[in-house]
Amino acid sequence: MLIETLTSIAGLTTPKEQYEVVLVSQNKEISNTLSAFIKTVNLRVLYNDENNTISHSRNLGAGLATGEYLAFLDADVALASNWLDVMIDTLKTRDNTALVSAMQVNSPNAPPLERIRTALSNAELDVPVSFLPGRNLFLLKETFEAAGKFPEHLHTCEDYFFTDKVSKLGELFYTSQTQYIHIGEDKAYAPMYKKEIWRGQSNIASLKGRRIPLREWPSFVVPFAFTGGLLLALLAIIFSQPIVAIVMLVGALLPFTAYTWRLKRLVKQQVTWWHCSLFYLLYFPARALGTLIGVRGAVSTSSHK
Asked: Are residues 37 and 163 in the same domain?
């Protein structure tokens, strides 16, 4: 996937003399295939300890970057050829804009889960947003410094934390004028379930040091309301408490139905009701479990493997 990412960068319409690529790797060396990009895209390779967080790697790379702008990319995205031109133009011409990201598009023959993820990512387009995913960010280097860089104490949720800080300096803008494919997007439900457990482990830690807007609270509360409601309903049935079971079941199904209905509206006819329902049947319990693991301080990057 990293090869595809670098290939897409090499295909940008922006002249190669106008940008540099800083690759921060937690491996000990790079392959011959990767080495070939050193001349193709002005690639520099830095090596970081595998025990450090992704935020540490990003801050390390940003510290050695020489340009006026910074583009943070995950190693599994394929950029449209006009991506960099549009990023620069949007940041220069749009008033009070501190951070820009491009819209996500599906890969060819994308399965239902990838279509769901893409639709959720594109829920708000060509408007200021409250959060931008870390796989595709573009901003001035001085804005990056003013925002305090990426939070190196977090193993996950670092993009929530960082973009929240940047939003205090200007708007976050999600544009449809250019696109990218998330090559490594979730495509199967079982691996997604495991990754959501991992992603949820920094939920509590990400709350420290920032004000939590009201719109974010459902993302913390609903996974527990759904999962806890189902478990309590099951216990009530076991102990022959049908009224309690019904109340708990209704309490669990109300937010589940609301989220599933919203998702179906986003995906339209691309994805069935069943796949939308299955997504939240797995997503909510995984997030709740991950948050509980994170409370115990058991966050580990190895849990993502």
From this structure: yes
